[in-house]
């Protein structure tokens, strides 16, 4: 009998497999890229939207801190009213999660009423705090009258006033603002005299500000609705734009726009009047509906 050599089988020792932890799943690169594009577009859109608003705020003496308080209130209100989980009560914890505010801050902000008086806004204004200190701090008042202050030197001077009531703001910047609104006058001898008892920025007409709020809100509500609406549910949102119109033609186009828009708007208004419910009709859902026309001019 022939004997064939037996194959040599190497002895292999198998170590037990270590426990594997599933890696954190991140979105696919395509999804990440899409998300980054969306956030970039949101940032650019916010910058464009906020520029005229910030211009209006600064013109009326409303600081970032005052604006941020109002914005926090809007964040909490929208999260509370429009981002509920069906069938569950909206909680401070959920509002904190989706807004990024702490639960303590959510509770504080939810208890606030919208700012309705000047004090609620100007208390954040550095110039306003300086005027308040100038009229109330005994170091800067003599017999109830704000003292004339020097721009330099020892004692209770204007830089010291600014340091006490306006933090790290440069005295020159605060003085420029107070002179701009006519709150301070510089005498021939260089001394500064306070002309008002409270800081009053040069403000816009309140009715026009209210109109701005209604107009901008209606336009943005339509644009935001169209972001997620189906094609059949899209609301009218159209523009005609020229980026190359000569500046001297703007007035002519403005006149043309007003002339041609007037009869269209009158016709639409008549239709709305014909179909509006009488005040005494009950049991029918009512909504506010309208069409806005506006002219815009962008400097290049």
What does the largest sheet look like?
2 strands, antiparallel
Rg estimate, integer Å:
32 Å
> Taking strands numbered 1, 2, ... along the chain, how are they ordered across the largest sheet?
1-2
Number of alpha- plus pi-helical segments:
10
Oligomeric state, counting identical vs distinct chains: single chain
User: What structural category do the secondary elements indicate?
Assistant: mainly alpha
How many strands?
4
Chain-averaged pLDDT: 87
Helical residue percent? 40-55%
* Helix and strand run: HHHHHHEEHHEEHH
Termini distance? 103 Å
In short:
This protein is mainly alpha-helical. The chain has ten helices and four strands. It has helices at residues 29-59, 64-82, 92-99, 103-110, 118-122, 126-136, 158-166, 171-180, 206-228, 250-275, and strands at residues 141-142, 145-146, 184-186, 192-194.
């Amino acid at each position: 009998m022939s004997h064939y050599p037996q194959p040599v089988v190497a002895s292999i020792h198998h170590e037990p497999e270590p426990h594997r932890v599933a890696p954190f799943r991140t979105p696919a690169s395509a999804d990440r890229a899409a998300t980054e594009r969306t956030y970039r577009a949101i940032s650019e859109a916010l910058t464009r939207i906020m520029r005229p608003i910030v211009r209006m705020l600064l013109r009326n003496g409303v600081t970032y801190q005052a604006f941020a308080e109002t914005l926090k209130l809007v964040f909490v209100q929208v999260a509370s009213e429009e981002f509920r989980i069906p069938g569950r009560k909206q909680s401070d914890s959920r509002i904190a999660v989706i807004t990024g505010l702490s639960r303590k801050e959510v509770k504080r902000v939810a208890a606030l009423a919208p700012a309705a008086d000047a004090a609620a806004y100007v208390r954040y204004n550095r110039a306003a705090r300086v005027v308040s200190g100038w009229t109330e701090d005994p170091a800067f008042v003599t017999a109830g009258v704000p003292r004339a202050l020097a721009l330099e030197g020892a004692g209770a001077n204007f830089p010291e006033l600014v340091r006490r009531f306006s933090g790290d703001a440069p005295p020159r910047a605060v003085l420029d603002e107070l002179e701009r609104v006519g709150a301070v006058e510089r005498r021939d001898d260089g001394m500064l005299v306070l002309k008002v008892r409270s800081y009053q920025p040069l403000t816009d007409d309140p009715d026009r500000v209210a109109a701005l709020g209604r107009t901008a809100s209606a336009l943005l509500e339509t644009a935001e609705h169209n972001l997620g609406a189906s094609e059949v549910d899209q609301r009218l949102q159209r523009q005609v734009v020229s980026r190359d119109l000569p500046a001297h033609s703007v007035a002519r186009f403005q006149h043309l726009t007003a002339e041609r828009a007037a009869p269209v708007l009158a016709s639409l208004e008549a239709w709305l009047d014909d179909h509006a419910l009488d005040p005494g009709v009950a049991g029918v859902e009512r909504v506010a509906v309208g069409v806005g026309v506006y002219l815009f001019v962008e400097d290049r």
